[in-house]
Fold:
Amino acid sequence: MSILNFEQLNTYGSARNAVVTIGSKSYRTPVFMPVGTRGTIKAATARDVAEIGFDVVLGNTYHLMLRPGSKVIQSLGGLHGFTGWNRLMLTDSGGFQVMSLGAKFDEGGVHFKSIYDGANIYLTPEDAVLTQEEIGADIAMVLDVCTNLPATRDQLQRAMDLTHSWAKRSRAAKVRDDQAQFGIVQGGSEDDLRRESAQAIVDIGFEGYAIGGLAVGESRDDMLRSIEASTPFLPDDRPRYLMGVGDPIGVVESIARGVDMFDCVAPSRLARHGGALTFQGKLHVKNKKYEVSDAPIEDGCPCLACKHFPLALIRHLLLVGEATAGTLLTIHNLTFMYRLVDGARTAISENSLDRYVANIRNAFAN
Ligand SMILES: [Zn+2]
Structure:
């Protein structure tokens, strides 16, 4: 029996409402996972994130394996003990970060330099499995080869073939039976490569499947087409995870196409720069018109910031550079992302997802 159980509750078109259970813990999908880059969600505590309602977050293996290192984390009871987060955690393989830092790939693995001290590091698919087993994520991602778009067909083909070979090695290297492992579909913006990649990764067999290599420079329409080219070849009874997508329109449009899981640093990064996400669209808190506003960021938002603090205060804190402004806006934006996918779950069960997607499109079209 699989360590991961995917129980589908109801569907609307390709969209699904489900419960994912791993061991004794579970989360509802569609789900957005906040990103804890270096052992914390930036500007927020594990308690803040749990209070919003999140049941699963993402940790970045790249940063954690360099500092403080997997052995330190393992000695403190793994990521859960080290970070104080006792709900579910997914870790990426580090592949996306090394790619964005200009890494060099060969058949065996990837060469890159540490951003902390410039040390030369060689990471293999087996190392990525072992590191994630040591730090004790509940869901581990395989090491894949992601290509920035646009890319030539030859580049995409080579990245895809290497991704498939590494996926096989990653599955063979897996030891822990209490950890789910997700394979990653590549193929860039070529529909036939997406199909070939989905079939190859499903043939190896994983507890869940990610659609990788998107949100790397292509248009939203191309991204959605690549999702449509991949999902028909992924099994109905396994979660589907679109890596690195967190813009509200991209999330709800992808949910409508059968994606279950998302992660992105954008909502919390935007927060630290003074941008608030609301169901009426993006709000720039530094705007002069909020100088004496006693209104919350968003009426009806249940977050700590909206319940207790007026826009005028948050704007003032931003303008004078107080870190608390970033914390309040991060809590608000993560609450928005939680409500965004929660709203999609409700819309799926009430057969109103089309209207929901149209509303989000209108709010964020500019
Ligand atoms: Zn709020």
Q: What stands out?
A: The pocket of zinc ion is lined by residues 297-298, 301, 303, 305-306, 332, 335 (CB under 6 Å). The chain has two domains: 4-264, 266-366. The two ends are 48 Å apart (CA to CA).
